[in-house]
Design a protein that fits this description.
The complex is a heterotetramer of chains A (112), B (119), C (129) and D (95). Chain A has 112 residues and is mainly alpha-helical. Chain A is built from 5 helices and 2 strands; from the N terminus they run E-E-H-H-H-H-H. Chain B contains 4 helices and 5 strands, in the order E-H-E-H-E-H-E-H-E. With 95 residues, chain D is α/β, with parallel strands linked by helices. The chains are: A mainly alpha (112), B alpha/beta (119), C alpha/beta (129), D alpha/beta (95). At the C-D interface, helix 1 and strand 5 of C face helix 4 and strand 5 of D.
Chain lengths: 112, 119, 129, 95
């Protein structure tokens, strides 16, 4: 079975859980659609995390699990601002899961 | 010492799945707060070459993945000096700031661990 | 008594190592030692494939592990990601990819790699095959 | 002090050569599976190795391969003794 989102009159392929199959399909408007599917209205704080997660993936070819995400973001924004609680508040169903989905990245490995 | 983990990599990247699944394991060990050391030995030193450029979509650039280890709390990265020399690789060609170990240091370092895995 | 975690990273049929692990495990149990878990990772996950078919006069490691696990109540843990990549899936995985067939069944259990960490921390020794 | 387990033939794998680089006083080597063929590998100089390290061979694997007369510098063991070795040594490395 094929799964997809419709965006700009085009079909964008996803997996069954709604993660994009091709990171290159992503753009800012698609992020809004993906976010609304998660019941999240993207604030500036959300965008900061989503952009960070996407940049991390592009730089390291791997999605950051929650601890790695906190550690990497703290290095950039400082420990006062970033904590796992802060990320959890922005992405209640799990920052690693939801932020990667909205950032157009593949579903994180089940290994964790 | 009691529960420290050593992962000895000795396989070249891309030709087999050893490198990929070994790195997955290292990341999870780090994430679980284990005391972990990762060794690059024999052909595995090729995993550390900075200038890797996979040409196939869906094949991850392992040098990039190795660079991310630090965020997964994998901080002890060691590379065998002899293996580098044998393959005429310079330290400047590596993608991370790995600790270069002489043969004696390599032995001593590995011997500190009680859980040793080879990939 | 010593407790062991056995890590199996070699394939079930294509290498002898999984069979060595089985013999080692049997010997350790006979000597009264404890096996905390047998963890299948990398190519070792093929040990859990229920769809492997063998002639009746050939070793069937999948069945041997099952019998041993049932007799001694052993934990046969299989890394979910390594298994899925090699076409070995549970009933739940099958639902996720819209298929009705699955080939990983009890007492093999699909788990995350964190289970390996937990098991190693509980054991006196780790031996890789 | 690890127990080094060699399971690949020295003729097609660097296992024994790599293991040798990490040996230190008190270590032991156990030959199993195709590692048994190390006995046939003259370049490996096992006899010399035996002067400093304990060498063991898993006898069921040797006999499977048609090797039953072991040189006196290796000790032939069975699976139960294999288990005991992994307990005697603080760690094992499967090359």
């Amino acid at each position: 079975m094929d799964y997809f989102l419709t965006h700009k009159d085009k079909k964008v392929a996803t997996d069954k859980a709604g993660y994009l199959l091709d990171v290159e399909d992503w753009d800012n408007e698609l992020a809004l659609i993906l976010a609304s599917g998660e019941g999240i209205e993207l604030s500036d704080e959300h965008w900061e995390v989503v952009t960070f997660v996407r940049d991390f993936y592009m730089e390291f070819n791997t999605s950051p699990a929650i601890r790695a995400l906190v550690k990497a973001m703290q290095m950039k924004y400082g420990p006062d601002k970033i904590s796992s609680r802060y990320l959890q508040r922005l992405f209640p169903k799990g920052p690693a899961k939801q932020a990667t989905k909205i950032a157009g990245l593949p579903k994180p490995a089940k290994c964790l | 010492m009691s529960n420290s983990i050593a992962i000895i990599n000795r396989s070249a990247p891309y030709g087999s799945s050893h490198a990929t699944e070994s790195l997955d394991l290292a990341m999870i060990a780090g994430t679980f707060g284990q005391d972990i050391s990762v060794y690059f030995f024999g052909d595995a030193v090729f995993q550390l070459i900075e200038q890797q450029k996979p040409q196939t979509k869906g094949v991850k650039n392992l040098s990039k993945v190795i660079k991310s280890l630090i965020f997964f709390d994998v901080e002890n990265i060691y590379v065998c000096q002899k293996s580098m020399q044998e393959r005429s690789i310079q330290l400047s060609e590596l993608c991370v700031d790995a600790t270069l170990l002489s043969n004696d240091d390599l032995k001593a370092s590995i011997n500190k661990h009680s859980r040793i895995m080879v990939f | 008594m010593t407790s062991f975690t056995l890590l199996i990273t070699s394939p079930a049929f294509d290498s002898q190592s999984s069979h060595t692990a089985y013999e080692f495990c049997s010997a350790a149990l006979k000597l009264g030692h404890k096996i905390d878990s047998i963890f299948f990772y990398h190519q070792g996950v093929t040990n859990s494939n229920n769809f492997s078919v063998h002639h009746s006069d050939e070793v069937n490691l999948h069945q041997l592990w099952k019998s041993l696990a049932t007799e001694y109540e052993l934990r046969l843990n299989v890394c979910v990601s390594a298994a899925n990549r090699r076409g070995i899936i549970t009933e739940q995985d099958a639902e996720e990819i819209d298929t009705t067939y699955y080939n990983l069944d009890k007492p093999f259990e699909s788990v995350g790699l964190g289970e390996l960490m937990t098991s190693m921390n509980a054991s006196d020794r780790l031996v890789q095959f | 002090m690890p127990l080094h387990i060699i399971k690949q033939s020295p003729f097609d794998s660097p296992s024994l050569a790599q293991c040798k680089l990490t040996l230190s006083a008190g270590d032991a080597i156990l030959f199993i599976e195709n590692g048994i063929y190390c006995l046939n590998h003259t370049d490996s100089e096992l006899q010399k190795l035996a002067e400093n390290y304990s060498l063991y061979i898993l006898s069921p694997d040797a006999e499977t391969r048609g090797i039953s007369n072991f040189p006196d510098y290796v000790t032939a063991i069975d699976y139960e003794e294999f288990v005991k070795l992994t307990i005697e040594f603080s760690a094992s490395i499967s090359w």
